[in-house]
Design goal:
Blueprint (H helix, E strand, L loop, with lengths): L2 H17 L6 H4 L5 H17 L4 E7 L3 H7 L5 E6 L8 E3 L8 E10 L3 E2 L4 H6 L1 E11 L10 H6 L4 E6 L15 E6 L2 E7 L7 H13 L4 E2 L4 E3 L7 E2 L5 E6 L3 E7 L1
Helix pairs in contact: 1-3
The structure holds hexanedioic acid and magnesium ion.
Hexanedioic acid binds next to β1, α4 and β6.
Length: 259
Amino acid sequence: MNEQRLRELAFFVDTAAVRGETIEQLTAKFPDLTVDNAYTVQKMSIDQRIERGERLVGMKMGLTSKAKMEQVGVHEPIYGRLTDGMIINNGGDFSIEKGCHPRVEPEVAFIMKRDIEGKVTDAEAVAAVEGVCAALEVIDSRYRDFKFTLPDVVADNTSASGFVLGSTVRPISEVNLGNLGIVMEVNGKAEQIGNSSAIYEHPLRSLVQLLHMLARRGEGLKAGQVVLAGGATAAVPLKQGDHVRVLVDELESAEFRVS
Ligand code: 0L1
Ligand code: MG
């Protein structure tokens, strides 16, 4: 697919995200869109946000748990990009008006302390991590009925819409990262209960896989960036007035309200 067409698709998905409008799957019109093309569309669409003044603050892994894969019918881990325009302050508000049909899922996040790239080992990845914290991700597919194929969801920046980080960041060595109980409450009721082992079997595996996937495109992570490791459970639809809180063993909590 030529560069001009990829730019048009990037403009199309970016406009849908800005307007909070649903669109037809890109693959309905362009069935030859490959996953590699889709990562180029994703980068071009985020570059448009950066040209408008947003800043790249990290990356996210998606579809890293069986529950998530089954929920959307795509069975491969994917990555997307996080900008400062997607940050929801811990205890702050997410405005539902800017979304299409947002959902929320419980995650854990890494905060990087140094630049890292390449086909790294687990030990090299651990050495580049400042700490870990509880997180919530708001995902909001721009596709009608939240339905997409693998290239569609990659091009749509893996449905990234918002994220909140817990205020407690703990060194990775002090946390039993592969076996943390996770409860996501909506309006005080436990809506999803899971464990960090559901995130690609271990969240560290998700971070290493992200670095390997980025390496294929000559990219990496920078000091200070956030990495969302992936949803530990299926995602839950949001409605105005909801108060969402995630409690993660050893990492305390993160929360926001839907306004
Ligand atoms: O973060 C995620 O796991 C979501 C990836 C994209 C699929 C979806 O929108 O649920
Ligand atoms: Mg997620």
